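Listing 4. Sequential folding, example run.
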Amino acid sequence: MSLATIMMLLVLQIITSLLFTATASSSPNGFTIDLIHRRSNSSRRLPYTDQLGGSPYANTVFDNTQYLMKLQIGTPPFEIEVVIDTGSEILWTQCLPCLNCYNQLAPMFDPSKSSTYKEKRCKKSDQSCPYELIYGDGSYSKGVFATDTVTIQSTSGKAFVMPEFTFGCGHNNSGTLSPNTSGIVGLDLGALSLTSQMGEKYYGVFSYCFSAKGSSKINFGDNAIVSGAGTVSTDLFMKTEKPGYYYLNLDAISVGANRIETLGTPFHASDGNMIIDSGSTYTHLPQGYCNQVKEAVESFVQADRVTVPDVQLLCYNSDSIEIFPVITMHFSGGADLVLERYNMYGVSRGVACMTLVCGDPTQLAIFGNRAQNNILVGYDPSSLLVSFKPTDCSALWS
């Protein structure tokens, strides 16, 4: 494979990593669920498990650069695999009849075969309620809001059933989604996200553990609490201008022993300066601060730099990521997350690159899913905490 081909693949991965940010959508009226915001220890037990007979969960699979969640929709249940996206709100899937759809290998959901499917009606017009989602790379999904039964598994052995679940039935979809996926499931703080529609008894608590091999699980409620030896927790922030996102506050990044503070840079904040996003592949930082991190890596690496026009990644002639320094993310509250080299670097046919993308100051900083690989990540909006626990994710539920 030529160097140009390798770099083109890397560029395509970057484009994919941008897919699940910067979304816009219309939504029906009347769906709000208030989250309970209170501080408490992240290892607490939630009080409702025995009453509900278990915690919901779903199986997940790795697909090139994204992680897919298996769930069922309709009556009888029809299985779909959708991208796990903490950076968006809506669950949508490609639906028949599909006027313009991307190539999907598995059969598409056919609403006419579900006895519980019902299109939503907009209150003002009493017509079908349309939606339009536009993503950062120009990909989009257009269709109608509908309700149907959504089913996932539960630790009790009994299925967790959500009747009249609001989702998007996509009849016009285009973009860079893999043929292995049926759509996207939004897990942000919005009222129509999967976690919100589960009900406030679950406090929006969920966790996942991503691995580039084998299958894994995403857990909700009591079974999703991340605690124990090795766990570090940081503050979760919410912002009114982008209310659905999970914001973290990055205080500094260490490149080996060289700690690079955000203090003194425009990137510095005390109320959240980056989002954690399972739908983005790479980690993104604003240009100025990002350049400081890259310069620190450059001063460490003893290898020949590879420069390719129009490609921003830091790359070297090497067949090993061991040439790179260890990266540590220092989040607020003393949460020092030491990353493995594969979290921040990749190698292909003699070219080793740092998988850090520098963006302009107007773009959101993103903690992407590659950096989260082999880390048990727990979201706890009720305690305003996100927790990380280094874990062999492929062996966690084997």
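-- end of first protein; second protein begins --
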Amino acid sequence: MASLRSALLPFARVSLRTRHAQLPSLPPSLGLMRGYKSRGPARDPMTGEMIALPDIDPSLLKLEPTSSPKIRPPSSTLIFGRTFTDHMLTIRWSSNSGWQAPVIGPYRPLELDPSSTVLHYAFTAFEGMKAYRNEDGTVRLFRPDMNMARLNRSAARAALPTFDPKALETLIKKLVMLDSEWIPNEPGYSLYIRPTLIGTQNALGVGPNSDALLFVICSPVGPYYASGYKPVQLLATKKYVRAWPGGTGSHKLGVNYGPGIVPQSEAAKEGYSQNLWLFGEDDALTEVGTMNLFVAFKKPDGGVELATPPLGDLVLPGVTRDSVLALARGHIKGEKIPGLPDNLTVTERKVVMGELEEAEKNGTLSEVFGTGTAAVISVVDRIGYNGRDITIPTGPRGLGPIAESLLSRVTDIQTGKIEHEWSIVANDVRL
């Protein structure tokens, strides 16, 4: 019995830590309130028993600047995700001691045991976010709270440890400010930020991890449409399925992305840029490639409906998706955005391919576009389905009026041209 208890203790601690991380508040005497600082496990003052593991603590940060800074390449030569900044953030976790002291040090290879669970069972969750630098030197993050919340949700689904989202956001600000000179000054450029959480337990058994590593790396990137807006073409097919009810499609896990490469390659061979993922007997639209999907329909009363598939097991809760919905709904309520229709309705509902076919025939199919961190908005002009193409209007600039208006508003907020609560200044953080 004692050996069984010892074997199960790491898993029990993972569950205990996760439960406490999800509690809104607890009495200060328990040492479990948000912002609790500890260099060791929290213990009951009466019994001495461990009741929680330490969370991420930015005050324990170890800053180890590189002694060999890289030469920054010209902005015009940047390729997405190929160039990385001088530093990275790493934070280790174990079921025995919780989150350890964060370290910002030189960008370098990771050292993993060949038996690490991430290499065998894909214990990995990640995020994609960006930082922008204004002409006055102000550095901004776009809605980092949304990324932190989604990473926590993904971690919990993958049996990885959760964390204090504000603590990690603070550390990401420190990393970004340390490498802020890597953010190009040219319009349209930014710093792509990739927080990643992996299981590092050295064991081939399948179960919750007793060890994990959270790391953050940064990559300067150029504008997605460097030579003008180019609509994309989609192949709608059910030969492959991205997500299913009860699955992990609504979480940002590494396991969701690798299997999409072959379907995309097959779509490219048929002359299409990406997949349009369908689901069910009625061919319901879910996502486009790795982006969320929006469709605009003209209504009989002269108005326009902007529709997107509802969230659930099949659709990732995208940050840009949420932003587009909020801005469009704000426009309806009176916070007007130039270029959007006055008589606009916004719906999160099921959309099926038969509806798109019918809308094309009667001239009510107005726009189709995807939303995501990399491109913000990517317009679709053609969808291959059942052996023929559905054609979608895109306008003379390659963007329909709704897509163009929302793209302009989102990017103005991201870069600080419009002051907004979503645009979080990083300059106030202390290194």
